[in-house]
Design goal:
By secondary structure, this protein is mainly β. The protein has 1 helix and 11 strands; from the N terminus they run E-E-E-E-E-E-E-E-E-H-E-E.
């Protein structure tokens, strides 16, 4: 059974940093494109960053230069290092494992709240 568990959210002042972690159980980590999404109140869920199984990364324009996605294959964990945080980064952050090309589906964590105060 596949499970994604996020951690690392919290309250931080503008300009501060946080590191989110997403631990993946199950056998999909090595084949998945792992992504971080976020959803602010009243907004749709949006892609923040993604890392493919080959290590290629992509970022939303709003976080380029501030956020870094990385993965630890030995620990089946993906990270999101968030620096220079802004109040507009406040959202629930979700981890996603995309294995659609293998199994026709993807998996989501339950989310972790990040609140950036001004």
């Amino acid at each position: 059974q596949v499970q994604l568990v996020e951690s690392g959210g919290g309250l931080v002042q503008a300009g501060g940093s946080l590191r989110l972690s997403c631990a993946v159980s199950g056998s999909i980590f090595s084949m998945a494109a792992m992504g971080w999404y976020r959803q602010a109140p009243g907004n749709e869920r949006e892609l923040v960053a993604v890392i493919t199984s080959g290590g290629h990364t992509n970022y939303a324009d709003s976080v380029k230069g501030r956020f870094t996605i990385s993965s630890d294959n030995a620990e089946n964990t993906v990270y999101l290092q968030m620096n220079s945080l802004k109040p507009e980064d406040t959202a629930v952050y979700y981890c996603n494992a995309d294995v659609k090309k293998y199994y026709g589906m993807d998996y989501w964590g339950k989310g972790t709240l990040v609140t950036v105060s001004s």
